Amino acid sequence: MKIVSVLNYKGGVGKTTLSACAGQALALTGYRVLAIDNDPQHNLTAMLGAGLHKPTIRDVYHATSIGLASQQLLKSARKTNVANLHVVPSTGELCANDIKDPLVLQKCFAYSRLERFYDYAIIDNSPGMDILQEAAIHASNEIFVPTELSQFALDGISEMQDLLSRRFGDEHVLSKIIPNFYRSVKAHDTFIRAFTERFPGKVTATWIPFDSVFDTLVKEKKILFVHRLSSRAAAFYLKLVHELFNLDEQTTWNMVMSRRKERLTSEATQRLVKLRQDAKDLSAAANRPPLEAPPQPDLPEPREITPDVDSAPVPNGTMTPLEPV
pLDDT tens across 3-61, in order? Predict the structure, then answer.
């Protein structure tokens, strides 16, 4: 089983998008994928449509033994809107203090023999480098770093590489750096060359272009490779997945197209069934006989009340005196 951590010091560089899209593409290709949301912002959980349910990754960290932690890990894996793709959700309460042993994920994967159930595990991490990220790094075979194209990003990844070298030696190093939000402008081309020179052999040949489609996907809860396959981002992400995971590009494309057709056919069938049921309900309502008015209770005839003439008021407001008997 291949285990990948998606890391960067900075936020807003596309870590969650990379984790979600790579997981979906691998699953659509036929691989069994576990995505782990190791970020208190829990955006990966939302993007994959899993919802905030317990147990979460925080419950894994709170377990009192590796055996219990492994059980929580397997229990927390939830189905997503893509077959073969499960996600371990996160929670806003997750923090560094939840982890007592930085090797907890590594031990859980080994104890539960996770490779029996999954071919890939992708861990989406929050920005920074504390014990949360350290736990993910210890458990991982590779580290992918999506980045924006700026001087701050370049310097930040250099610092992150130095820190990894000091903490882990050669055991855990940056595997791939993925340029993100690329625009065909001179400044971005300059930074591509700078990244390539500073990190030889690490920068992917595929650069993900800027595309507003990702905002639409999150808002509408859609899948890039199913509902927006014609977008520029989908084509580049499929090419990137082929490069990162050493997959055959044509086989990947054919599998995604086949699964996409199945998914769209299923969704169309569900919509048709719903429309027919709605039409059936409307027809039944139109043919239903009108409701009869409830029977009224038998009320007594109203009694005519005759006023007492002797005490009735006269027009001028005075009372007529009574005659003596």
Answer: 999 999 888 999 999 999 999 999 999 999 999 999 999 999 988 888 778 899 999 99
Structural domain including 124 reads 2-271
Q: How many domains, the chain?
A: 1
Q: Quote the pLDDT of residue 310.
A: 56
Domain membership of residue 320 (yes or no) is no
Specify the CATH number for the domain of residue 128: 3.40.50.300
Residue 50 within a domain: yes
210-231 pLDDT, tens per residue?
A: 888 877 877 777 888 888 888 8
> How far apart are the C-alpha atoms of 325 and 314, rounded to whole Å?
22
Burial class (CB in 10 A: 0-12, 13-18, 19+), 213: middle
pTM: 0.80
301 occurs within a structural domain: no
Q: Is residue 287 assigned to a domain?
A: no
